[in-house]
Structures are given as C-alpha cells and as structure tokens.
Amino acid sequence: MNVLHVAAGKYPTEDNPISCIFVKKLVEMQRSRGLDSRVLDAAEYMLAYFSHDVQVREEKLIIRSQKGLGKLPSFLQERYFESVFSTLHNRYSLRPDIIHCHFSNNAPLGKELSSRFDCPYLVTLHENHWWFEDLIVKDPNKCKEAIVASDMVTRPNSIDIIDLYRWEILSKKIMHLQNYVDEKSFRIPSASERAERRSEMGVSDKKVIINIASLHKKKGHELLINSTAILKKQIPELEIWIVGEGPEEKSLRQLSSNLRLQERIRFLGRIDNSKIQSYLSCGDLFAFPSIAESFGISQVEGMLAGLPVVATRNFGSEDIVLNGHNGFIISSRDPKEYADCLLEALTKTWDQYSIRQSAVERFGSDIVYDKLLKLYESLIKNHYRDT
Question: Residues 6 or more apart from 50 whose CB is under 8 A from it?
C-alpha cells in the first residue's frame, strides 16, 4: 500500500527535531512494517511556487510552503496545486493509494491531490481544543471545506468527537484514533541503572518531578512552578526538571527566580528524543499541567517508563490518565490543589509495571497500526466502489 502523508510545515526539521515528532514516528513505523509511506513537507526557503521544485530526502518530498497561497487569485492557486501534482506524478512516479493529511492547514492540499490522484484522503486534526472550537464556529473557509469533503476525519482524543458531531455533515465519518507512541523507546530502568543515573545528575536523595513540553502558555508551566513554591515546604529535597524550549522560557525563569526556586527547578532545554529515556529514568513523577491538548504524547512516554502522571484536565489527558491507577487528574488550576495532588502522588506506592503495561495495551504500536491499516483499507475499498 502506498501512503502519502501531507504534513507540510508540521514535520521535524534539523532546527526543530522534536516538532510534531509523532508524525515522523508514525511514518517510520509504517515503513518498517512494509507500507510505502512518504511525507510531503514544505520549506520556506524554496523560492518558486510553480516550478518542478521538489527535493527528496529519504521518506520526505519537500515542496514550496503554502504560506501566502490563499492570498493569490484562484487560478494561481490552481496552478500551484497542478504543479505539485505534476512533479510528484511525472518526475517521481508517485501513485498513492491514500492520502493522510495532518493538521487542518494541510487539508486543502490533500483534497486537491486526492482529486488528481483519484484516491481517498483523510484528515487528522492534531490541533489543541481551543483552536478546534474556533474552527467549528468559523464561517466557511478552505480548511473547513476540505475537512468536510474528506473521506474520514480522525481526532486523537475522544472528548472532542462530541464537538465534531456539531458538524452534522461529518457525523457519519468521524473516528477517535489516538496518536502513535513508540513503546520500544521507553522502559522501566533497573534499580542499578536508575541509581547510577540519579547519582550522575546529583539527585540520589531527592524527589524528582519531570515535565517535558514546549515552553508555551498552553502547556501550563506557571501552575507547576507556583505549585512547587508550596510543595517545597512539604518536601525539602525536591527538584523539578522542565525539559523543552520556547517563547515562555524567559518569563518562566523570572517566575522561578521571584519565588526563589532557582535551586529547585532545572530548565534543561531541548533534549534529543533518543536521550529522553535517560532523564525519565531519574524521575519519581511526571507532571502534565497543560491547559489544552489534542492528546499529549509526553505523558504516555512517562508512563512507558513507569512514572505516574499528575495532569490537569486539558481534553487529552482525560483519555490517558486513569485516576488512582496510573496517576491523578484534577480539574482545578489552583496551585495549592495541584501541589496537594503532586504530594499525594509522590507519597503513594505505585505499580510501575502496571502503569507501563496499561500504556502499551492502550497506546502501543500494534494497536495504532492495526486500527489505521483497517481504516486505510476500508477507505480505499469504499472509494473505488463508489467511483
């Protein structure tokens, strides 16, 4: 089966290797299992809209970014789509059986290519809940039209499926499909490995809470930092590790300084995906105070390393955290209440192996691959039956 993933501007790059890495991991998993999966990505530096300007890098086909395309006259937009199709079809002999669009902004390109290649296309809406709400109430636009016209719409969390039903035209083609998580990249460390790694990091006798997320407002780091100021009184030997980078780093560091938490909070910056396991092996708890998510892969990765998760309700964690079994989830964003929840989780005895096993059974590669393959096969069959 030939699968073309349209992920223009939503795929890891050398400058940002962890951006939307779940799409890259999905493609790699599919290729390892025999599917001919390719990715259509985009780059700003490619100058011409209408030349045969496609670069090939392993599984990626890179085209000119669509940024600004919507401001062009319709006949020039048509020319752009035809140029992309012609290059993929004639120069690279691409013949996809199905097109899988990631994020709403890639739906229009997927729709146009689907028509030209005469194959079905589906759209996975990875955006966070608040964007999602905004899209539903917006006046018709090209993204919305392309989503509605697709053969299937999938959403990584089940809560937002209810909102999708508000688009009555979509009511018969909506599916909850969680993101792919590579369980083989994460494991519960042995006691000796954990002790050695904690010694290297200087936290042998400390409680370590880890958070992995880009430093954006929606990730809720302020709540974690404010809660730490309360929690340090109950747990003198406490460290918070914040892994990630982003526009809020300066203000978060300032907040940490204002609360005199410089010795309690480590800002570790961006860490290569291959090294995340070594940091998780030091942890006692994974904090996920996010405000809005479509899924929240990093909390699942924490569970795969045996860590319980303390999350706030954010539309993604509700499908992942089973209260009292693999962590806690609370509705409040009050620092005192979140601190109390962190304290309870740190003092509770957890079954690490049960936490990991539950994550594998619900989010492992076999589950996602089988669901997606059956969906692809069904859409392809229905497409050719209807044409």
Answer: 79, 80, 83
Is the alpha carbon torsion for 347, 348, 353, 357 positive or negative? negative
DSSP 325: T
Residues 6+ apart with CB under 8 A from 7: 20, 23, 39, 40, 41, 101, 102, 103, 106
Phi (first) and psi of residue 159, to 5 degrees? -60, -45
Which tens digits make up the pLDDT trace of 207-261?
A: 999 999 999 999 999 999 999 999 999 998 999 999 999 999 999 999 999 999 9
Sheet holding 152-155, edge to edge: 55-57, 60-64, 36-43, 2-6, 98-102, 121-124, 152-155, 174-176
DSSP character string of 72-98: S-HHHHHHHHHHHHHIIIIIS----SE
Per-residue burial over 298-319, b if 16 or more Cβ lie within 10 Å, else e, is bbbbbbbbbbbbbbbbbbbbbb
How many residues are recorded in the chain?
387
Q: Taking the model in full, what pTM does it have?
A: 0.89
Residue 209: name the closest of 359, 358, 341 by CA. 341
For 67-81, write each residue's pLDDT tens digit.
556 666 777 778 777
Q: What domains are there in the chain, each with its CATH number?
A: 2-180+364-386 (3.40.50.2000), 183-363 (3.40.50.2000)
Helix, strand, coil tally for the chain in percent (to 5)? 45, 15, 35
Helices of type H across 138-275: 142-149, 159-164, 191-200, 221-234, 249-258
Neighbour tally for 170: CB within 10 Å:
15
Q: Which residues contact 316 (CB under 8 A, 6 or more apart)?
A: 156, 157, 290, 293, 294, 295, 296
Residue 328 identity (one-letter amino acid): F
